[in-house]
TrEMBL record:
Gene3D superfamilies: Endonuclease/exonuclease/phosphatase. It comes from Lentinus tigrinus ALCF2SS1-6. GO terms for molecular function: metal ion binding; sphingomyelin phosphodiesterase activity. This is DNase I-like protein. Pathway: Lipid metabolism; sphingolipid metabolism; Sphingolipid metabolism. GO terms for biological process: sphingolipid metabolic process. Residues 9-297 form the Endonuclease/exonuclease/phosphatase domain. Belongs to the neutral sphingomyelinase family. The keyword Membrane applies.
Length: 458
């Protein structure tokens, strides 16, 4: 009998080689937990070491025989998807902006943050596209406007991908570490533009927002509000100096599972419905026999049921019509999508006000990138002139000073080369990427405002 339930887990494993504490022990413990579970889909983030992926894949292969490790950037995206269903397509979309190569400590540029996805054929739903992502980390929900820009770019590009997948007649499930709390601008863009629904909110209705004057207990923050990161109950967060927001609310909800139905349901009105019935934060305990948690995040699981729109047995083919996938096409922007595949009006879209807020951050980043680029190019020329001066002057210095000037020359050459790349090559890349997205958002805002003022367009 066809299963009418679909269970998914998303989990940030914190698996960076040489940096993450007890990585090997934790990965093995995670694999054991996954092997004893009954998930249909598992999306993992920060599983960067390929040997760790191979280990987990071998342990869970009996229940989840299909897997994809996604490559991106210099060190890999750290994104993995395991599936009980055969994977018929897999793709990865590296985000246009992922921080700077000079920011080695943050590391986002080196790992190439991205949106990864698989498509599988479900016996009742037809094609289902599952996205797994990990958005840009630095420049959180508080701070200067220019620091928020890269995550906003990630959010906009992710929302377009999810929206286009639904436009192809697929059910869409999006999971991962979005590095943003629910009420922030990146999450608004993702939910509204892609038409996504937050599975946690659906299964936890009428939950009041936590109040700074009456914060929840650490356990309630997890159980009621879905906190998955910076919890005082996590061994890697306990005692750590946290941001004010995390201290007020006993952690942050950064991990999500979103879903939506196909944008073009079957004309008969008998397209199956994907509905979440339960979501919960999991892997909150310590690794068995150890004093540390499974990761610096907790996991999030979601259980969906597949139902017939008008009741009846969904496994009876006479009660449902599986949506057929739309013809594949290349959609480079929302303009192309609207011209080649007009989709029916949806209840929500990102508001012009949200687009304006995003444009403020992106414009601030554009100006910041311009000024930084000029400064770095200036450092390049200064270093170059000083280096040439040292080389010329070295003929008049005592012989015993030559090793010192050799070291200084090497350091100046490294600095000049780095500043040339950061200021000119990467700087122009960032400015051009920002220009493209700013212009696209301005066009989109104008289209939204025109649609709102013209009833015939709706």
């Amino acid at each position: 009998m066809t299963d009418t339930r679909l269970r998914l887990l998303t989990f940030n494993c914190w698996g960076l080689k040489y940096v993450s504490k007890f990585r090997t022990e934790r990965v093995r413990a995670i694999a054991n937990v996954l092997a004893s579970s009954d998930y249909d889909i598992i999306t993992l983030q920060e599983l960067w070491v390929y040997a760790d992926f191979e280990y987990v894949r071998a342990v869970v292969s009996k229940k989840l025989p299909y897997a994809k490790f996604f490559y991106s950037g210099a060190l890999g995206a750290g994104l993995v998807i395991f599936s009980r269903f055969p994977i018929i397509a897999a793709t990865i979309h590296p985000y246009s902006l992922n921080g700077s190569p000079i920011d080695v400590v943050a590391g986002d540029w080196f790992v190439g943050k991205a949106a990864a996805s698989i498509v599988f054929a479900h016996p009742l739903l037809g094609q289902v596209q599952v996205f797994n992502t990990h958005l840009f980390a630095k420049g959180g929900d508080e701070g200067p406007e220019h620091q928020r820009a890269h995550r906003l770019v990630n959010a906009w590009e992710f929302a377009k991908l999810a929206r286009q997948a639904a436009g192809l007649g697929r059910y869409v499930i999006c999971a991962g570490d979005f590095n943003s709390v629910p009420w922030t601008l990146p999450m608004n863009i993702i939910r509204d533009h892609a038409g996504l629904t937050d599975a946690w909110v659906t299964t936890h209705p009428d939950v009041p927002d936590p109040s700074p004057t009456n914060p929840p207990t650490p356990h309630d923050a997890i159980r009621v509000h879905g906190v998955t990161a910076d919890s005082p109950l996590n061994s890697y967060s306990a005692g750590k100096r946290l941001e004010p927001l995390a201290r007020k609310f006993q952690g942050k909800r950064l991990d999500y599972v979103f879903y939506r139905q196909p944008a073009s349901p079957h004309a008969s009105g008998r397209t199956p419905i994907l509905r979440p019935v339960d979501t919960r934060v999991v892997l909150t305990e310590r690794v068995p026999g150890c004093p540390y948690s499974f990761s610096d995040h907790f996991g999030l699981e979601a259980t969906f049921v597949i139902e017939a729109q008008h009741g009846g047995d969904v496994t009876d083919s006479g009660n449902i019509d599986i949506p057929a996938p739309a013809t594949m096409r290349r959609e480079s922007s929302f303009v192309a999508a609207s011209q080649t595949n007009p989709e029916p009006a949806i209840d929500m879209d990102v508001s012009p006000e949200s687009i304006t807020q995003a444009l403020v951050s992106l414009t601030a980043r554009y100006r910041f990138a311009h000024s930084q680029g000029r400064l770095q190019v200036m450092i390049f020329f200064t270093s170059l002139f000083v280096l040439i001066g040292i080389i010329i002057a070295s003929a008049w210095f005592p012989f015993w000073l030559n090793p010192v000037f050799t070291i200084i020359s090497i350091a100046l050459a490294w600095l000049a080369t780095t500043m040339l790349y950061i200021g000119f090559v990467y700087g122009n890349w960032e400015v051009n990427a920002l220009t493209n997205i700013i212009e696209e958002l301005e066009l989109y805002r104008a289209a939204l405002q025109g649609r709102q003022s013209s009833p015939t367009i709706r």
